[in-house]
Amino acid sequence: MKKVLVINSSARAHNSQSRKLTEIFVDHWKSIHADPVIHYRELGNTDVPHINQNWIAAAFKPASTRSEAEVEALRTSDIYISELRDADVIVLGSPMYNWSVSSTLKAYIDQILRVNETWKINPGDKQNPYTGLLENKTLFLFLTRGAQGYEKGEYNEHLNFQSNYLRTVFNIIGITNIHVVAVNGVSFDGEKFKESIEASHQNIRELIGMEEN
Ligand SMILES: Cc1cc2nc3c(=O)[nH]c(=O)nc-3n(C[C@H](O)[C@H](O)[C@H](O)COP(=O)(O)O)c2cc1C
Fold first, then answer.
1. Whole-structure pTM over 0.90, yes or no?
2. Contacts (Cβ under 8 Å, ≥6 apart) of 101
3. Does any ligand 1 atom lie closer than 6 A to the CB of residue 18?
4. Portion of the chain with pLDDT greater than 70, in percent
């Protein structure tokens, strides 16, 4: 049985479109699996610790040489990474904030990008400088935005620091099988937005079907 990790990063506890998308995923997943294993990681409505002096000192030295304070500084990172290792399927809801991701998601990314834990450096290989250490995982990225036109070739593409950023960091840690569903125009209650929502829900169900076959 595949294990699912659902990560929500919207600061909105209610009426959040990205939470709605992760919910649609979970509902559909439950409808097709007899004993679903689903774990949640809340980011948007909790304090995600920022990395600090002790964190950096600890992360870049062998585990056996870490002081107690350094071990403590990595505790949250250890938990987040073990959740990722444990999961086969990761479902991430990400609202666009100020053309990028929420600050809690950024803090989470800083916690999970750990040298020799989730990625390693390939010295001397300029073409291929990093190897990801998380293998055989599928990521569903559910992106929501107030405005529109952020996709490739569209008028707001140059303002989109969300999609490529997320793809890049997850690729670096070895997660390359990524499905993206984006809902645009959330702030405008127009026909286009409704179409976008309906299409995204259908898209999520189809993507799950594809992965499961
Ligand atoms: C603090 C904040 C910043 C935002 N910045 C942007 C932005 O840069 N571009 C955009 O298109 N929408 C922006 N929005 C709109 C959100 O992306 C939109 O409301 C989306 O639905 C948020 O996801 P959620 O419904 O899961 O909270 C912003 C919203 C908030 C609250």
1. yes
2. 9, 94, 109, 162, 165, 166
3. yes
4. 100
Q: Which residues make Cβ contacts (< 8 Å) with residue 122, sequence separation at least 6?
A: 128, 129, 130, 131
Q: Ligand 1: does its nearest atom lie under 6 Å from the Cβ of 95?
A: yes
3-state secondary structure 145-210: CCCCCCCCCCCCHHHCCCHHHHHHHHHHCCCCEEEEEEECCCCCCCHHHHHHHHHHHHHHHHHHHH
Q: What is the mean pLDDT of the chain?
A: 95
Nearest CA residue ID for atom 29, ligand 1: 97
* Domains defined for the chain, CATH in brackets: 3-49+78-212 (3.40.50.360)
Confirm or reject: Cβ of 185 under 6 Å from ligand 1: no
- Cβ neighbours for 12, distance < 8 A, ≥ 6 positions apart: 19, 44, 95
Give the mean pLDDT of 116-138: 95
148-168 pLDDT tens trace: 999 999 999 999 999 999 999
Q: Give 40 Cα–ligand 1 centroid separation in angstroms.
A: 22
Cα(97) to ligand 1 centroid in Å equals 5
Q: How does pLDDT run across 56-107, given as a tens digit for each residue?
A: 999 999 999 999 999 999 999 999 999 999 999 999 999 999 999 999 999 9
The number of the ligand 1 atom at minimal distance from the alpha carbon of 44 is: 27
Q: 85: CA distance to ligand 1 center in Å?
A: 30
